[in-house]
Amino acid sequence: MPRFAGPENWVKPRAVPNLRPLNLILVVVAIVAVALPLIVTHLVPAAKVEVGASASPVLRTTAPRVAPPPVEPVEYAEIAPDDARSINAKVPFVKGPVPPARPYHFVGGKDDLARATDCLAAAAYYEAGDDAPGEQAVAQVVLNRLRHPAFPKTVCGVVFQGAERSTGCQFTFTCDGALARTPSAAAWKRAREIASKALRGGVYKPVGWATHYHTDWVVPYWSASLDKIAELHTHLFFRWTGWWGTGPAFNRGQQPEEAPVTKLAMISDAHRMSAAVAGNDAAIVAASTFQGRAAAPLGSDAGTFLAALNPVQADEFADLALAACDKRAKCKFMGWTKPDGMPTGMPLTPEQIAAMSFSYIRDSANGLERMLWNCEEFTKRHPCMRRLMLRATPAPRVGDPPKGPPPLDGVRRKEAAETALSNIAG
Q1: How does pLDDT run across 121-152, given as a tens digit for each residue?
Q2: What are the distances in angstroms from CA 171 to CA 78, 176, 335?
Q3: pLDDT at 278 > cutoff 60
Q4: Which of 96, 178, 299, 307 has a CB 3.0–4.6 Å from the CB of 173, allowing a cystine?
Q5: Is the pLDDT of residue 29 over 90?
Q6: Using CA of residue 113, residue 119, residue 122, residue 128, what is the dihedral sign?
Q7: Is the distance from CB of 102 to CB of 247 less than 8 angstroms?
Q8: How far apart are CA 215 and CA 153, in angstroms?
Q9: What order do you get walking across the sheet with 227-232 strand by strand?
């Protein structure tokens, strides 16, 4: 038999120590300390990080109980360009990260989106020129402003803030006459594509949450009070200091209904048609200075066009009239080169008819189509308009009986303006 079978070869077991309550508590604590991290890792889902955002933890700060900073008018110190560049170069860039803005997604109807796109495209083109990175940066600044409580809550409202004043507009192109220059078809198409992309969530990261910018050859009065965060070509970009320049401050949404802007009527179909529907004839005419694009019809008559014309572009008047009338069977296009003689609606006065520089009339049902010129103004153009002779009618002497039979009630006499308009057609 094996030796370990006998009782004499058994091994005496060790005595089990007597566990006290304190020892049991320490054992339980040790087990929990080891197991808890494993439980949290496997059972609690990881926090989602927004694409393009920093993976580092975000410190949530509390909004200050004060009003947002005031939006100052655009005013520049009277400094020579070279001196301004020297001053701007000495301003250091802010230390620390420049986090990108969150994607912006437009909310609204089709017409609102079209007007917002053209407002944003106009800001991008006229502020940055035909330069894609610059246009992207401007578009980002506009959308940053829209989200900040200090600015209007529509795209067009942000872009044209203060434009009703000769000074104090936020984007200088809206009040310095730059809109008289019409972008080329290719440049306008690219600006609209950049604007559309920004409204659908595209982010231009280098400028972060910038709300201000200026060129390096000027020194605005507000630049010393903001954080300088980026440079693009000759433009410098800034954000507000403190909490108002951080991501949590940009927490506002847009308001519905992008209002039409008559200043964009000549380059934007969306704004031209919206103004026409509103019946704002005078505003449309005021925005219709000829720059190589079709003029806008009157809101009261979609077949009538009143246009301010540039006399140096007389060779293009005919093309403008044909483009405006398009496929209309009945159409009247009338243009003036002198703003003082130009009307803002119908009917025309004899003085306005006499001041007319060019006209085109079409009436397909009656086989009528003519272009006529003011040959006193354009001596080498033809055929010529029949000139309306404006004659002063002497007032009757007091006491003289009126000549001729008395006027009959209910009989409408033909007005001079109607007679003159028939002369325009030949």
Answers
A1: 999 999 998 899 999 999 999 999 999 999 99
A2: 19, 9, 31
A3: no
A4: 178
A5: no
A6: negative
A7: yes
A8: 26
A9: 212-215, 235-239, 227-232
